[in-house]
């Protein structure tokens, strides 16, 4: 005979088993909440980086157009040339993170906390 119990077996009524099952949904909700919070934090971080990079771009445009500093433009052109020639995803990620952090440090957002 088979040792498999049907779904309505008394073991399902076991209070200890039910208690352990009640804990798992709570844990999964907490994990889900943490994941959403961390995703929200990542999105906020990306927004801060984007805003800081926009400020950097505005600053570069101001220097080139209003102050006529073409040496800085040539440096940026050289930087973009090397950036465009990067092929390895690891280096691309590294340079992207560095550029983002640099923009945040040099051109922070007003609402940055």
TrEMBL record:
Its main location: nucleus. One of its GO terms (biological process) is negative regulation of DNA-templated transcription. It is found in: Nucleus. It comes from the Eukaryota. Signal peptide: none annotated. Keywords: Nucleus, Repressor, Transcription, Transcription regulation. GO terms for cellular component: nucleus. Residues 44-105 form the OVATE domain. The keyword Transcription regulation applies. The keyword Nucleus applies. This is OVATE domain-containing protein. It comes from Arabis nemorensis. The lineage of its organism: Eukaryota, Viridiplantae, Streptophyta, Embryophyta, Tracheophyta.
């Amino acid at each position: 005979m088979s040792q498999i119990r049907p779904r309505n077996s008394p073991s399902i009524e076991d209070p200890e088993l039910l208690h352990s099952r009640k804990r798992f949904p709570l844990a999964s909700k907490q994990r889900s909440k943490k994941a959403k919070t961390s995703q929200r934090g990542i999105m906020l971080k990306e927004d801060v980086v984007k805003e800081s990079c926009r400020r950097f771009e505005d600053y570069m445009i101001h220097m080139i157009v209003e102050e006529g500093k073409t040496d800085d433009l040539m440096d940026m052109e050289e930087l973009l040339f090397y950036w465009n020639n990067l092929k390895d995803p690891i280096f691309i990620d590294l340079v992207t993170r560095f550029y983002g952090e640099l923009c945040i440090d040099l051109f922070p957002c007003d609402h940055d906390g």
